[in-house]
Each structure stands twice: as structure tokens, then as C-alpha cells.
Amino acid sequence: MAEAIRYGQDLPVGARGRNSTGWWGLLCLIATEGSLFAYLLFSYVYIAIQRGSAWLPDPHPSLKLAGPNTLILLASSVCVWWAERGIKRNHRGQLLAGLAAAVILGTAFLGIQVLEWSGKDFSLSSGSYGSLYFVITGFHMAHVIVGIAILLCVLGWSATGAFTRRRHEPVTLGGLYWHFVDVVWLFVFSTFYLSPRLIG
Amino acid sequence: MSRPGATRPDQAGKEATWEGARDPRIVDATAEFPGPRLKRIWETKPGLLGWFATVDHKEIGKRYIVTAFLMLIAGGLEALAIRLQLSRADQHLLTPEQYNQLFTMHGVTMIFLYASPVLSGFSNFLWPLLLGSRDMAFPRLNALSYWIYLAAGVFLYAGFVVGLGPDDGWFNYVPYASKTFNPGVNIDIYALGLILLGISTTVGSANFVVSFLRTRAPGMSINRVPILTWGTLTASAANLLAVPSVSLAFFLLWMDRQFDTHFFDASQGQPLLWQHLFWMFGHPWVYAIVLPAMGMVSDALPTFCRRPLVGYTPVALSTVATMALGFGVWVHHMFATGLPTVALSFFSGASLIITIPSAVAVFAWTATIWTGRPVIRTPFLFFASMIVLFVIGGVSGVMTGSVPVDWQLTDTYFVVAHIHYVLIGINVFPVIGAAYYWFPKFTGRMLNEKLGQWNFWTMFVGFNLGFFPMHLLGLLGMPRRIYAYSAGMGWETTNLIVTLGAFLFAFGVLLFLINVAWSLRRGPAAANDPWGGATLEWAVASPPPVYNFAVIPQVVSRHPLWEDSLAEGEARSSLTRGLLLDRGRETIGTTPLDGQPNLILEMPGDSLSPVILAAGLSLVFAAALGHAWWLTGLGVLICVAALITWFWPRRVHGDVPRESAHG
Ligand code: HEM
Questions:
Q1: What is the average pLDDT score of chain A?
Q2: Ligand 1 centroid to B82 CA: how many Å?
Q3: Engineered SS bond to B393: which of A67, B302, B406, B421, CB 3.0-4.6 Å?
Q4: How far apart are alpha carbons A113 and A69 in whole angstroms?
Q5: CATH number at residue A143
Q6: pTM of the model
Q7: Could you report the predicted ipTM of this complex, rounded to two decimals?
Q8: CA distance B410 to B302
Q9: For A161, which of B9, B26, B598 is closest by C-beta distance?
């Protein structure tokens, strides 16, 4: 009788890690946002090439704040990775601690960025370098803020016990987004802070 | 408090009660089962709330199509006003300012608000049916994409109706569009409105990409999908990469205008940056608004030739190749800007090479007609004529793709002729043909065939009468975007003919609308498969039930409904016997390449989050236009709230009591 026939293989029900549609959707988001930053940096390079090296601020952007800040952001990524590892092993404490640490580090990054901004002797409207600098780093900061908001939501849901060892898609997705935001920073950082050093 | 089926995370051993895996049953669908049960599960609640909350792809697809057609009408009326003004020399029906707004809104409407959304509409409605699924991968994202599209359309038109519409052409070059030369709010409306629209396009594209990869019926490997899905997939992937470019350009322009940044000004920044950012998006976009339409032809034309498409694989590959090359030709819009010759030669070469994949499609369609037994019905006429118009538009494209010719012809009516042959030829004609073809699936009724034939011939004759002579006007040196010309230039007769043709064409479109209005009420009822089509959408009722497929079909070929008549091999697709997924809104998730089931997807139910999010976003943009920053903040808060509810972790199927969840 037809009723008795089964597909013959257990299929997971609902979201499951990289198998979920959410994971693929996030990859699409990352592709499009990654492109956005690529176009932003293209604009910088395009104008920089046309204007020549005298266009860069003198002295070149300093690494004093930006260098350590980069490390802070990278450390926050490690925390998120560690948090996700926690929930995969059913250690809720580790999940919570990792997420909280990432949020704190992310916020510290923001604070230092604001400090960095306030120390600049050019402004958004003083010239095209300033426009590019503030708009591009501003775009990145906006992404950091969104990332922190996501981590906070995930933290809250984790605290109420919404996730399990096998069902914790928001942790995976929020974490991936956070890593993406960090990688973008590496590009922004290299463009503004490192590339002027290369061309002397 | 504790919901049945929900466990605490620390009770690891019991997790399986609500999250586990299951081995789904395979059953024969009958009238009693599982249809009625699925209907209860999938149905949208009646009433206004349900109307706003629905995430049914068929409903959203229809809304997209209707809205896009309203936009086509608006853009068409603008074009008619333009043509009236140009019908004679020294005419003064319109002021120069009005004329600028009219041709700009015409271009913006047609390109952004009609041509792409109408294809999204068809794809939204058809994709899950073509793929043997019950909805798109992200149903709520689908709703969001529609609501934002609607908001962006209203945003752009709100400016236009009060006389503040964008007025620097659809590609809005700086410095015309910079604050110094265009101080009004017109360009800010353009910039912000189109950023908003870009969000809609982006989320819609992500949805298509993931739906293609994950929601195909078991057995539907990527060499068995209908070409339409290839077209929309390619367009969507390109949109994901290209739309940020233009959204960024709009944003930077707005910053330049409102916050005195210096991206595009000549003294500090670089005006050509605008053109690069615009066309890096613009050219892929042109393919994005024709490839899905070409896909519709590739799928529907064979139905009327009573044979499968000749060259499925080359056509699918050329679709992707066109787009890949399409990213490398943007500079051909900038030949006249004084770029270095090496760059020009490179991009000119690329522009010529891109004709190869396009030619593949043309040959495939021609061969399909040639070797088939054509049945001349209205959709066939539209599809076949599209091939002719495509060739004409392609030839004029190759001409302007070569640098010296372009220097002669750029900014003349030759270009206007070219874009209309391409856009009307490869978008409007296939779209109307597709409307005839799929109307029975949309509504359960057939369009009137006789009126359809009239409809076609009026449009075809009107179109060629109205647009072919424009080539001549271009060669005679008539520039585009002029609001009047003086007598004695030798342009008068031709312009009059062009205007008459335009009105005839518009009358043809009107006949289509009349046919729709009439057939919605009087058209003969349609069976499941009125044309004898080959693909899965024809296996379900017209219009399809809300859950699409009672059981998930199992596919073994490209044309599941033609397997018997083609008698290729032994295997048969199974359409009424398949996986039973009825424990809530479920559909099957399959592997990206082979289409092997690997997940039971829990689909979200109806939700107000999308429409609220769209409203919040619109508020952000409208408030930013007026610098009402506290309202912008409020908009952001609304968006955040909507997003949090959207992503709130759900433990069980959203809206259905799982009476048999443990069975
Ligand atoms: C009744 C049908 C139509 C007529 C009579 C018509 C007529 C015209 C005319 C006369 C112009 C040139 C205006 C000028 O340069 O001064 C124009 C521009 C344009 N049309 Fe159409 N058009 C029609 C339909 C369409 C459709 C269906 C599309 C696209 C799908 C389209 C896309 C465009 C674009 C992109 C421009 C360029 C606008 C600009 O210069 O910024 N048109 N149209």
C-alpha cells in the first residue's frame, strides 16, 4: 500500500548550519556588500591615481590608533568563532562569554575610531580625500554598528536558551556577518593606512 | 508555559522532539489528500491584514506584474507627450523644463520601474511552479522586495506630479546633476528614490539565487531547469554585484549635493567617476532586463513549435556568457569622453565579441521554428517577432559599439532607435507574448485570440513605423533630448511619421489592456495545460492551488510533460506521486547541482514584518530628503523592530498546530 512507502533516508527538518537557505542568503548579502566596498575603494583608487601623491594628507595617516584597533577587531572575530564552537559542544557559558567579549571589543573599536576621526585635521567637505576617508570609514563603522546589534540580539536569544547544539542558525549567521565586517576592515585599513606607505 | 515539542537546550537528549530529522512518506495525491489539508496550512487569512501579510509568491508575482504595467502606462503616456511635442517643428506644447522631466521620467520609469520589475513579477509567479517547489526560498524577502519597489515608485512619482521630478536624463550625468547646475530637490529625489529601489532589486535577486540553488524539485539537476530560470538567475547574480555600484553613485551624488563632499566636482574630485560607477552597473543591467525575457522565449517558443528548444546547453551557457562579458563593456557608453585609445579599443573589441553569445540564442530560436511545426498563435507571433527586432537592435548596437561610428552617432536619435529596438524588442514584445502564454496560469482564463492577433499586428507595425525612421533622424543629425527643433532641418516629415507610429504602437498596447480587462471576466476557462506545454507549471491547475504541488514532483528530464510524446528513454517524471510534506509549511531543499533532497525546508508563514520594514525604510528616505533627521531616526527604529521580529528564532512551524508532529 502506498501509505507505507518512505523516501528511505532521514532528511533534517528546518535550518541546519551551512545547509540552510539562510546561510546561502547571507552569502548573497556578503557578495553584494563586498561589492559595495569594492566600488568604494575603487573610487578612492581612481581619484588617488588621477590626483597624484600630493593629494594624500601630509603626514600620511598614522598607525598609532588604527594599528591596535585592527588587532582589537580581529580579536573580536576570534571571540565569535570561539562562542560558536561553544554552542556546538553544548557549552552555553562559552557561547555567552564569547559573544559578550566580541560585543565589548567591537564597541571598543568604535570608540577608538571616533577618537581617530576627531583627530583629523581635514573634514568631510574639505576636499575629496576627506570625503572619501570619512564616507568609506563611515560606511564601515555603520556595518560595525549593525554587526554589534546583531551580536546583541544573538546574545539575548542565547541567554534565554533559544539555541541548542544543533539548532543555532542565528549564531552561525551572525558570526559569519561579523567576520565579513572584519575582513572588510582589513581592506579599508590597507587602502588608507598601508598603501600610502608603499608609494612612499 | 511549556509548548509541546519545545525542549530546553540543556536537555540535549530530547532535542530530536522538535528539531530532528524525518524520513518523509511518498504518496499518491488524490482529490481528498493531501490537497485540502495543505490548503488549510498554506492559505492566507482573508481580509486586509492577510492582504498585507501574504508571502505567497503567486500573489506577489501578480502584484509585481500589475504594478509594472501601471508603470509602463505612465512611461508610455510620458513618451506620447514627448512625441506630440516633437511631431512638428517649432512646437511649444511643453516648456523645456517640462520636456526634461518628461524624458527623464520616461527613461527612469521604463528602465527601472517597468522593465526589470515586470520580469521579477513573471519570475516570482513562475519560478516555484517551474522548479516544482511550493514557494521561493525566502517568501518574506519576496514580499519585502515588492513593497520597497512600490514605495520607490511612489517616491519618484511623488516628485514628478508636483513638478519636481528628476530632469537630467536617466543616467543623470554630473556636472548637470550637481548642485551648482541643478539646485532643486529633483535630483535628490532621483538619487534617494533609486537607492531605495536598489534595495528592492538586491533582496529580490538574493532570493532568486538561493531559490535556484536550493528549491528545485528532486531530480531537477541544473541541466534540466527551464531557460527562464537561467536568465533570471544570471540577471540576479549580476544584480548582486552591479547594483551596489550605482547605489553608491547615487549616494555619493546626494552627499555632494547635501553635505558639500567632493566626489564628482571637477576641481577636487572627478566627474567621470559618475560615469564609471553608473555604467559598471548600467550595462550588466541592460542584460538583466533582457536575459529573463529571452529565457521566457526560449521556454515558451518551443511549445508553439511542438519540439524542444534546439541547443539547450549552448543557450544556457550563452546566457551566462553574455552577462560575464556584459561586465566588461561598460566603457562603450563613454567612448566620447576622451579616454585613452587603448582603453577604447579594448572595450570596443569586447562589445563586438558579446554579439557571439547573443547570436547563439538567435540561431537556436530560428532553428527551433525551422525544424518545428509552428502553431501560429498570439504568443508565437510576439516571440517570433522578437527575434527580428533583436537582430535589428543588435546590428545597430554593433554599429555604436565601434568607436568611430559611435563618435558620429552618440547622442543622436540613432541611439534612441537602438535602445528602443533592444528594450521594446527584447523586453516588451516577449513580455506581452508571455502574458498571453501564462495568463491562463495566472487567472484560469484564456485571453481572446482574435483580439490578440490585432493586438500583435498593431504593436508590430506601430513599433517599426515609430522607431525605424529614428535611425534615419539620427543619421541626419537630430540630437536626442532636444525639446524642439526649427523648420528647414529636413526632419519634419520623418518626425511626424515617428509620432504617428508611436501612437499606433500605444494603441496596440491599449488593445492588450482591453483584452485583459475583457478576458478576466469573459475569457474561456483554461484547463491545466491549454497550450500543451512541457514544464511543471502546466501540471497543476490554472490558477494553481496556494500550495502549488500536492506532492513534491520527481523530475527525470527537461520536459517532464513531454516525456511520453518524445519517448526519450524509459524513465518518467512522477508528478502526482511524490514526497508528502504536510506538517506545516514545508517544501523540499535540494543540493545545488544535482537536485538531490537534503533538507526539509520549514517555510515561514504570512507576516507583517516585510510591509512594516518597507514602510520604515521609506520613512528613512523621505525624511532624509527633507533633512528631518529625527524622522529618519524613527524610521530606523521601525526597521530595527521589524527586523528583530523577522529574525526571532522560531522553534516550531510558525502557524500550524503540529498535531501529528511526533508521528
Ligand atoms: C510608446 C512607446 C515609446 C515611445 C513613443 C518612446 C519614445 C521615446 C523618445 C522619443 C525618446 C527620446 C527623448 C529624447 O531624447 O528627447 C525616448 C527615450 C527613452 N526611452 Fe522611450 N519610448 C517608448 C517606450 C519605451 C520603453 C518601453 C522603454 C524601455 C523599456 C523606453 C526607454 C527609453 C529610454 C531609456 C530613453 C532614454 C531617456 C533619456 O534620454 O534619458 N522607451 N523614448
A1: 91
A2: 9
A3: B421
A4: 8
A5: 1.20.120.80
A6: 0.93
A7: 0.95
A8: 38
A9: B9
